[in-house]
Structure formats: structure tokens, C-alpha cells
Amino acid sequence: MKLDLPLFRPRFPWWGADLQTVANFVRSAKRTLAPHDSENLLIDLRDGTGDRLFCTLDRPAVPRPGTPLTILVHGLTGSQESQYIYSMACRLLDAGERVLRVNLRGAGPSRATCRGQYYAGRSHDFRALLANLPAELTRDGMRAAGYSLGGAMLLKYLGEEGEAAPLLAAATVCAPIDLSATCRRMLERRNTIYHRYILGQMKIEATAAGAEITAAEREAILGSRSVWDYDEVFIAPRHGFAGAEDYYERCKPVHFMGGIRVPTLVLGALDDPWIPGALYSSYDWAGNKALMPLLPTRGGHVGFHGAASRHPWSDEAIMRFFDRG
């Protein structure tokens, strides 16, 4: 499949991988989807915990009948309010398509409705979400796009489900397909500022009001000095892994991507400061015809702020992929 996309060219002043990456944090974010309408949905995960995912359903002002529902899944410490989620939602709504913006377990508004915490391997939450959506929303089919950690979770889910996955198409943007290698990259000195920020947000998220954690877990979370420590002392023991490396090994998407049968766009920048580009360039893409790699040399981490449009270049890539799927 060819998408006939223009080459990605960075837009001033977002030159270089780091500026592409931080643009999502320093640019003025659009916080309205007007003239489109939105309503809140609580999706019960029905796993005995009582946890319910807080989601927002966006309906276009001028709907295009027969189009699938597109589900958007945020990345680590993100939410339905993340700028890249708003941008993609706006692009889809303007095309007349419905959007479901998901807050993973314990993320954003889901913190108030979930006692548990998401992690990259928690694909069963996405499985439960799809199974419990109202039939009115899924009647015309479903597609999904996952960003960063949300993309890793989506790839794992798709590989586990194979041909049984009830999605027409999927896309990921800057998914860490090897969790251990990505963690090691984040711990490099060049990423100190990124790492400090992300770890701080993870601690706030995991200990916020509504989280069900023991006093020992709270102490361990707040005492973590790195993302690896956080996964070692909290995520791994809480979810049955022997440690952080066991969690990373058992949940890394490359173990599951060979089983994907849904047409899936895998978009990643080779200059991503958080994810080693070699993870993408060395993968055997020819071994699975369901996967379509799109690997520009530039773009940063979930950046792709290009000269051709005020929307990220990744939005256009996903739209073209979905339209031709």
C-alpha cells in the first residue's frame, strides 16, 4: 500500500528531534473540539475490580454515515487531553467521523473511576473496552490509533488476538516496541530532563486520590529514582512479574507483532530521542504483510510538526492509511 504522503519536513521553529518532542508540551494546545459535540462514557472493565474507564465520545457536527468509530489511546502520563490526541480527534471529526478518546486505567479522569494502574502490557484492558462498548458505536466497525505506550499496548493486543481482533485497521505512533531498550535509552544522560519530568508525572498519577495502594507501595513509588525503579518496585510486583526486566521481556511488542493480522500502520521517527531508531530499522517488516512501517528520519517522539500543515504529519499519515484500508 502506498500513502502518497509528502516527505516530512520540520516546521519552523521545531527543528531537530528534541524540539519536535517538546513542542507538544510548550505549544498552546487546543482545548475545544467545537463545533463538534462530546459526551462522557464510563466503560466498566467487568474484571471484578469495579474499575471503569472514563472515555469521551466525540460526534462530528456533520457526520459521514457508515464510517467506523476511531479509538484513540494516549501514551505514558498522557490522557484524553493530550495535545496529540486532540489534534487527531479534530482531524477525524472534521472528516465526519466519530472518535472515542480513552483514558487508560488510572490515567487522567480515569483516576477517579479506577483504583488500579495501567502499564504497557495491560492489553486485557483494551480487550475489555472493545467488548463492552455500546453496540450503537461499533455497528459500522472500529479502528484504533495508539501513541507511545498506548501504541505498545495496542500492538501487543493485536498480536495476541490475531485474526480474531475486531478492528478494521490500526495505527501506532512512536510505540516502544522493545521496553527494556527504551528504558535504557531514557536513562541516558542526554535524556535527564525528559526522564525527571516523566518520572515525576508517573509518581503523581500513581499516588493521586482514588488510587488503591498500600502504604508500602506509596513509599516505594515516591522513593523511586528512575522509571526502571518504579517498574521494579511497583508495576512488576503489583502485576505478577518477577521484576522490571521480567515485565519488559514478557510485554515487549516485538514478541507479539508477528501475530498481527489487522492492517496496521507502524509510524516512528528514526531520530526519536526516547526510542532507539535501530529497533524499527532492524525489524523484519517483510515477515508480516499486515504491518506497514513508516519510518521517516526525522520527527522526534510523537512530534511530526511539519511544514505542510498545522496538523502533525502523523495525523495525515493515519488518515490516509485508514481511508485506504
Can you characterise this structure?
This protein has 325 residues and is α/β, with parallel strands linked by helices. It has two domains: 17-178 and 252-324, Rossmann fold (3-Layer(aba) Sandwich); 180-250, no CATH class. 37% of the residues lie in helices and 14% in strands. It has twelve helices and eight strands. It has helices spanning 17-26, 83-94, 123-132, 135-138, 149-161, 179-186, 192-207, 215-223, 227-238, 244-251, 277-281, 313-324, and strands at 37-44, 52-59, 69-73, 99-102, 142-147, 169-173, 264-267, 291-294. Strands 1-2-4-3-5-6-7-8 form an eight-stranded mixed sheet, with helices on both faces. Strand 5 (142-147), helix 5 (149-161) and strand 6 (169-173) form a beta-alpha-beta unit. The model has no long low-confidence stretch (mean pLDDT 96).
Mean pLDDT: 96
Overall SS class: alpha/beta
Please trace the helix and strand order, writing H or E for each element: HEEEHEHHEHEHHHHHEHEH
State the total count of DSSP E strands.
8
Strand order across the largest sheet:
1-2-4-3-5-6-7-8
User: Please, how many domains?
Assistant: 2
Question: What is the rounded distance between the termini?
Answer: 9 Å
Rg: 18 Å
**Total helical segments:** 12
Main CATH class of the largest domain:
Alpha Beta
| Residue share in helix | 25-40%
CATH architecture of the largest domain: 3-Layer(aba) Sandwich
User: Main sheet?
Assistant: 8 strands, mixed
Residue runs with pLDDT of under 50 for 5 or more positions: none
Q: Tell me the β content.
A: 5-15%
CATH fold name of the largest domain: Rossmann fold
CATH homologous superfamily annotation of the largest domain? Alpha/Beta hydrolase fold, catalytic domain
Shape: globular
